[in-house]
Design a protein that fits this description.
2 copies of one chain form a homodimer. Chain A has about 210 residues and is an alpha+beta fold. The first copy, chain A, has 10 helices and 4 strands; from the N terminus they run βαβαββαααααααα. Chain A has helices at about 10-20, 40-45, 65-75, 90-105, 105-110, 110-120, 125-150, 165-180, 185-195, 200-205, and strands at about 1-5, 25-30, 55, 65.
Chain lengths: ~210, ~210
């Protein structure tokens, strides 16, 4: 059985849950409580020296890390439904949209970074929220522009079926909503996210549906 | 002719230069001076609404963004020499090592983030350096552990030829050296980087060899 080490609110684990669901793959979940610091335990670091979730342990005991690498692995082993188009320039567009979230927004706003801002830099709540919103705004401004003006966009980020880009977008929007970011300037993003959320694979992957939600 | 919009010191542009060189592809460079803020100009944003380098404009005028997406695009169109192994779990390992740099270290330490620390959060030089080194140390600790204990490692991050992981590692080490990070705890990383630097494709992609270096 495939085992996912994750945390209900981790955006990166959320991405992998969506992909496992889209592919119709059964998996067992082992919660790693990030707030309690369980990701830094010796036990977990034996699986992943990065001390980060998600980690996916496959049937044969191989541990895979980094959410986008895991998603592409699952897509290569279980090609249908496809997370990427066939044509190289279109694949590059989907990966770029995914990475705009995964490399430009999320890394700046995850729990370990927010903790550094508060514990080391002594930022108050207002300054922490301003930081959070600054990176969401910059990233979503760009994403909305790309989704609005590029021909590849459809009901989803690329075309009319979910791709790796939507897999990254939905957890980021969930997170932005949690930090009460104003998303009214992003109608295209909102429409796409609504289309995703209407699908079981996305709904069942959402944080509130996980065993460790609390 | 393929055109690369970049900046000599940008780690992300550096990655793409390495791949273009490894593949033996001719390209024209258009420097975008990040220190002067040229990436925020209307002219550049017409190419890339993200206001980030690199952007690659292909022969047919398509603009591609996000360095890892560009690298995989080039690898798909020009498969030899390969940037990724053939076997899915090995591909996932290489992508994870690349993303450990590209999603966990680099996004926290690039110029726009350091500028925010200084201009908005009023951090002094010491606190800025501590921030920089904190994310390099965490990331390189994990990377050194993975490279040392995982069977896939060789003269390069994976096996005995350069992959996408080395393409990300070398610019990150260049950057860490510029910020005078102590790398003595990372012998395996250092050995791999020395092997990369001995190759023309890496050497010719290095910042000091670029037309806008100064």
């Amino acid at each position: 059985m495939t085992t996912l080490y994750g945390y209900f609110r981790s955006s990166a684990a959320y991405r992998v849950r969506i992909v496992l669901n889209l592919k119709g793959l059964a998996f067992e979940q082992v919660p790693v409580n990030l707030v309690k610091g369980e990701q830094r335990s010796e036990t977990f670091r034996a699986h992943n020296p990065q001390g980060l979730v998600p980690a996916l342990v496959t049937d044969d005991g191989t541990t895979l890390t980094q959410s986008l690498a895991i998603c592409e692995y699952l897509d290569e082993l279980h090609p249908s439904p496809a997370l990427l188009p066939l044509e190289p320039a279109e694949r590059a567009r989907v990966r770029a949209l995914a990475q705009l979230v995964a490399c430009e927004i999320h890394p700046l706003n995850n729990l370990r970074v927010l903790k550094y801002l508060v514990n080391e830099l002594k930022l108050d709540d207002e300054a922490k929220l301003a930081w959070y919103r600054h990176w969401v705004t910059g990233g979503f401004d760009a994403l909305e522009a790309m989704l609005s003006r590029e021909a590849g966009s459809g009901d989803f980020c690329h075309g009319d079926t979910p791709t790796l880009a939507d897999v990254c977008l939905v957890p980021q929007v969930f997170n932005a909503e949690r930090f009460e970011c104003d998303l009214s300037a992003y109608p295209r993003i909102q429409r796409i996210v609504a289309n995703c959320r209407a699908l079981d694979a996305f709904h069942q992957a959402s944080p509130e549906e996980q065993p460790d939600a609390g």
